[in-house]
Amino acid sequence: MSARVETGSARATHGSGADKVLLEIDGLHVELPVGEEMRPVIHEATLSLAVGEALGLVGESGAGKSMTARAIVQILPEGASVRGAIRFEGADVLAFGKEALRRFRASDIAMIFQDPTTHINPVRKIGDFLIEALVTNNGVDPAEAARVVVGFLRDVGIDDAERRLGQYPHELSGGLLQRVMIAAALAIEPRLLLADEPTTALDVTTQAEVMAILDEQRRRRGLSLIFVTHDLELAAAVCDRIAVMYAGFLVEDHAAATLHEGVLHPYTAGLLASRPSPTERARRLTAIPGRPLSAFEVEQGCPFASRCAYVEDRCREELPTMRELDGGRVRCHRAEELRGTLTELEGARSHD
Amino acid sequence: MTEPAIKVEGLTKVFGGRRGGGVAAVDDVSFSVAPGGSLAIVGESGSGKTTTARMIIGLEQPTSGRIRVGGHERKSRRAGSGERRRLGREIQIVFQDPSSSLDPRQRVRECLDEVVRLHFGLDGAARQARVLELLHQVGLDERHAGVYPRALSGGQQQRVAIARALASQPKVLILDEAVASLDVSVQAQVLNLLADIREQTGVTYLFISHDLAVVRQVSDDVVVMRRGKIVERGPTDRVLDHPEHEYTKALLLAVPRRGWRPVRTRLLDSMSADLAPVSREEEVARAKDAAAEAAEPPAGSHPG
């Protein structure tokens, strides 16, 4: 193990900053140009992330979860219009100049994407890719960098690290390449990891392995994590908190440990109930009618109203605000009265 | 005893074997499915599950082995048009990605009418009624008949692909990762729909999937494939409740669910170490099976 890694874990253990806020997203609203008009992709997202905390950002297609992650690092598509505030350790990310933004991306945040092959140069060796980042961003001497990189590869479960350094990306399996990307992310010693569907393209057994490694290494180093995924159960397994998005709105923010028992939003409850279980066969799955809406399709009222089993007139007219309830937050007019009944929706499945 | 809807014996596919040294992507696979039954072939990339499905539907020629569908022996030579039409009434397939298996220039009505016209001597009014019946069967209606696929959501497109596959009233429907790319809330609708269709029509399912939760929901029996071979088989509930093979156990442990934690296991690595070192040829065969999974065949390449 390298000295560098030990520095990382030391930082985690003297962490008095358990409740210290690392990242704040306040009233985020993003629009993208489509032809002549501007279309919303995020209506409203307000979130905060503590030092060392892991947040799962969950939703179906068009929910705005990836865009939220991209807004944090300012890698939105050309012509995007962003309102609201994003603060990293109190600094206003949206006001960063070119140089501040470069430093922020290079040393404070590391991203891990779904398809590593689009983020690694196919004609350069794994070793060059890993070492270059350390040399240019952290000013490490190349020989020292090579030694350090081997340590990081071992940390992500790659035992024959020296041999891997001499290989090209296409010579590695998808799971191995994703572990290299995690090693690369850890090597810059960031404060925050942003992982966008990092295991979606992998086989299930490889997914479990890669998630276990990501989780273990993140905890050991005391890093914060934003994990963007469509898989609610996967997020709940490795995150402290779950933020559910629907049609460009944040609709629920809940502790992962109590999500099943204390689910607050009908959409979250519907997501939990519609996924089949590997351990028991349901006579019939509890499906949510209709399809997920994209942010630009939302009209007035609650964005989920057209698919919600608990809809009332008020839901179609008035957009609910995000408010605190049972230690979490929820955007639903009927949250208080539905409390406790939504979990039965999930339970009903196994009994019928 | 009734003739099985599908019976496969000693099915083998060797890739890259022209000068010897080829490796089997599918290696001596045998199974049968009773009429109206549902068998899932479960495995990960390179397991051979997709190549098995492609041989049964006729997109790939077996190196050896026998395939019987609806009591008819599959001929090894290329089928003529009459033979292809007959095959189309026996077996159909639905792929993972409907946007690449539906013709973008064809309205939904024409897409279904084409198949009905090919297989049945019906007049215009009867065909129109049949198209509507098919749409209703998959939870769509007349409003969807006049639109192009691009105007539909992913879930609706997959419903159209299922309706098209059902249009020839096949005895067997192969569902090749057919719900894998759908959003969770829509996936549940389509899984319920598939259960309804089997109950109503008595069609036989061959379900190709990597997802044990989906497999539990849709299949009566399961075969687990790894590296071209069947490693475990049996009634789905028995295999998933009491898996015997280490690989089945590992697959099951890897499915996220309530209370689950990802485990950094060395199981799979140590299992591979027990087997012979992977040769270049084997890698090629596995890659071909994985590529077949990823690649969508051109529209209309399936029989019917």
Concise account of the structure shown:
The complex is a heterodimer of chains A (352) and B (304). Chain A is an alpha/beta fold.
What is the secondary structure topology, with strand pairs?
The complex is a heterodimer of chains A (352) and B (304).
Chain A: H1 3-13, E1 21-34, E2 37-50, E3 54-58, H2 65-72, E4 81-88, E5 91-92, H3 98-108, E6 109-112, H4 126-138, H5 142-155, H6 161-165, H7 174-187, E7 192-196, H8 204-221, E8 224-229, H9 232-238, E9 241-246, E10 249-255, H10 259-262, H11 266-274, H12 313-317, E11 323-325, E12 328-330, H13 335-338, H14 342-351
Parallel strand pairs in A: 3-8, 3-9, 6-7, 7-8
Antiparallel strand pairs in A: 1-2, 1-4, 4-5, 9-10, 10-12, 11-12
Helix pairs in contact in A: 4-5, 4-7, 5-7, 7-8, 11-14
Chain B: E1 6-15, E2 23-33, E3 38-42, H1 49-57, E4 64-69, E5 72-73, H2 81-90, E6 91-94, H3 98-101, H4 108-119, H5 124-137, H6 142-145, H7 154-166, E7 172-176, H8 184-201, E8 204-209, H9 212-218, E9 221-226, E10 229-235, H10 236-241, H11 246-253, H12 267-274, H13 280-294
Parallel strand pairs in B: 3-8, 3-9, 6-7, 7-8
Antiparallel strand pairs in B: 1-2, 1-4, 4-5, 9-10
Helix pairs in contact in B: 4-5
Structural class of chain B: alpha/beta
- Measured on Cα atoms, how large is the radius of gyration of chain B? 20 Å
Main beta sheet of chain A? 8 strands, mixed
Give the overall shape of chain A. Answer: globular
N-C termini distance of chain B:
29 Å
CATH class of the largest domain in chain A: Alpha Beta
Q: Classify the secondary structure makeup of chain A into a structural class.
A: alpha/beta
State the CATH topology of chain B.
Rossmann fold
Estimate the global geometry of chain B from the Cα principal axes. globular
Order of helices and strands of chain B: EEEHEEHEHHHHHEHEHEEHHHH
Residue runs with pLDDT of under 50 for 5 or more positions of chain A: 1-17, 347-352
Quaternary structure: heterodimer
Give the CATH H-level superfamily of chain B: P-loop containing nucleotide triphosphate hydrolases
Radius of gyration of chain A: 21 Å
**What's the number of domains of chain B?**
1
- Largest sheet of chain A, order of strands side by side? 6-7-8-3-9-10-12-11
Beta-strand share of residues of chain A: 15-25%
Strand content of chain B: 15-25%
Number of domains of chain A: 2
Number of extended strands of chain B: 10
